[in-house]
Amino acid sequence: MIKREIIPLSVPNLSLDILDNVKETIKTGWVSTGGRFIKEFEEKIAKYVKVESAVSTQSGTAGLHLALEALEVELGDEVIVPTLTFIAAVNPIRYMGAEPIFMDCDDTLNMDMNKLERFLENECDFINGKVINRKTKKQIKAIIVVHVFGNPANMEKLMEIKEKYNLNVIEDATEALGSYYLDGKYKGKHCGTIGDIGVYSFNANKIITTGGGGMVVSDNQRLLDRVAFLGVQAKTDCLYFVHDEIGYNYRMTNIQAAFGTDQIDKLEKFIETKIKNYNLYKKAIGDIEGLNLLPFRTDVRSNHWFYSVIVDEDKYGIDRDELLIKLNNDNIQTRPLWRLIHKQKPYLDNEVYKIENAEFYEKNIINIPCSSNLTEYNVMTVIKKLEEIKNASI
Ligand SMILES: *Cc1c(COP(=O)(O)O)cnc(C)c1O
Q1: Most buried residue, 19, 142, 212, 268, by most Cβ within 10 Å?
Q2: Ligand 1 pocket check: which of 201, 215, 340 to mutate, most ligand atoms within 8 Å of Cβ?
Q3: Do 188 and 315 reside in the same domain of the chain?
């Protein structure tokens, strides 16, 4: 049997018009961390998410690292993070010599803010404006919140907690460019623009891509200046190359930005397609007993980056892992949720707080094809296969 062409999970949506920009970088020689596209891309992102300015980086991970640097997270500090996320949201804490504390998720897959509050109330002391973890006697300096799969986290509750406990909030908005709130205190505000610092990513599987790349935003110009400064080797004098601190080579290149200035113009179109395909899936999957397409919050405009399906083995007939194998064997690229971070080897000894929901979702979710260049025909093919597998299993 000849296999159908692969339907990928999440791939870039690129077009050849980017070549004009790339040619310019070659002709002018501006291929490294200087050049007009960098500034242009930073300005376009800032305008899109409605902030004053933005600082580009070579990856989202680099952006998160610089955010922790700017907020002065240090050796021996602790930072609260979700366990249900991609590991890049957590590793930068270790780069700083600090340790993560893992939180559970709620049914939006985002950090459970009630548990977070209970942890701070019951397990920590608040002394001289500092949160001290009773168990370790260490200071908790910050919370990294992730807007998982583009579904906005409960920032209203988180910012209340932040104020009450005097904690820093970093928004990992790497999956949520284009998601914003439609209601409540942060109506009109984009994910990434509410906490102290927000970070976006333009890795190849993200909603827009520069190959690799990231962007940092903040309302606090001092913090943003620190991020910019530390990202260019902390150079204090450009002529004599004076450096008073340790910095990083983290600034975006002009080639990456040459992609970015083109991709950002297409973002709204991509989101439109993602929402359209999500709704196609929703209608059909609603009729397949044992499968449940996870909703996005309805009081937001979500970018619908990744689609998650919960598999109920008893009703669907086969379990999640068997379904994964069958779909992948049929050239429909699907994958399970990330292994929870508190169960990953580097973090086995770290503190966890009442993790329950995340375990359930880790076991039962598959992510199904969601690229913004997925055709209606592709979506229908996936749906048909999901129906077929169910019918064959009963
Ligand atoms: C993609 C991603 C990152 C890292 O972004 P890179 O640009 O790949 O370094 C960080 N956190 C989360 C949640 C991500 O999905």
Answers
A1: 142
A2: 201
A3: no
